[in-house]
Design brief:
heterodimer, A: mainly beta, B: mainly beta, 5-stranded antiparallel sheet
Chain lengths: ~110, ~110
């Protein structure tokens, strides 16, 4: 069966510090991968998606970036965090036969 | 543009039936999803509709009318553990991304 991992689970970072969040999927190959952010009291916002290694599409311009160095690994990064980057970051993968997205456990980021 | 509307909050009692509505106006449509999200946790998949009609899965059912841009999630025999946020999401025309509504927070009381 497929599983999706994210780490760390929680993170507290100062403004201006760098960020690296990692997501890995097991039990499937060539999945579509996604990064979402959920700010307090707001809906899920799609940040990036990837249909393959090195292929990244950005949905919103901001100080975040994403990379996919391996088939089942998706990384979210920032060089300098802003207060507004605080939120719940969720990675998801798509089962291609049904287009159903399955979410990882998430990383709760607080920028102080 | 892309717009997905759901009520912000709903309340119900144990054992009751509740219907959560979702209307959408999107530039493309390739299916509609419902997810459940408990506080502090990740969303979990509930249902998927791509054709008009009702999909039933245990206590949960989901309905879609593509011509009306309308869906609902029906929860029967409500339990306290059903207290959660319910997210409606539309898959875009390319099938590459989900567009989420802001979610409906359901509170179930005894």
């Amino acid at each position: 069966s497929q599983t999706i991992h994210q780490w760390p689970a929680t993170l507290v970072q100062p403004v201006g510090s760098p960020l690296s969040l990692e997501c890995t999927v097991e039990g499937t190959s060539n999945p579509n991968l996604y990064w979402y952010r959920q700010a307090a009291g707001r809906g899920l916002q799609l940040l990036f998606y990837s249909v393959g290694i090195g292929q990244i599409s950005s949905e919103v311009p901001q100080n975040l970036s994403a990379s996919r160095p391996q088939d089942r690994q998706f990384i979210l990064s920032s060089k300098k965090l802003l207060l507004s980057d605080s939120g719940f970051y969720l990675c998801a993968w798509t089962e291609r036969t049904t287009d159903t997205q399955y979410f990882g456990p998430g990383t709760r980021l607080t920028v102080l | 543009g892309q717009n997905i509307d759901q009520p912000t909050e709903m309340t119900a009692t144990e054992g009751a039936i509740v219907q959560i509505n979702c209307t959408y106006q999107t530039s493309g449509f390739n299916g509609l999803f419902w997810y459940q999200q408990h506080a502090g946790e990740a969303p979990t998949f509930l249902s998927y509709n791509v054709l008009d009609g009702l999909e039933e899965k245990g206590r949960f059912s989901s309905f879609l009318s593509r011509s009306k841009g309308y869906s609902y999630l029906l929860l029967k025999e409500l339990q306290m553990k059903d207290s959660a946020s319910y997210l409606c999401a539309v898959l875009n025309q390319a099938g590459t991304a989900l567009i989420f509504g802001k979610g409906t927070t359901l509170s179930v009381s005894s």
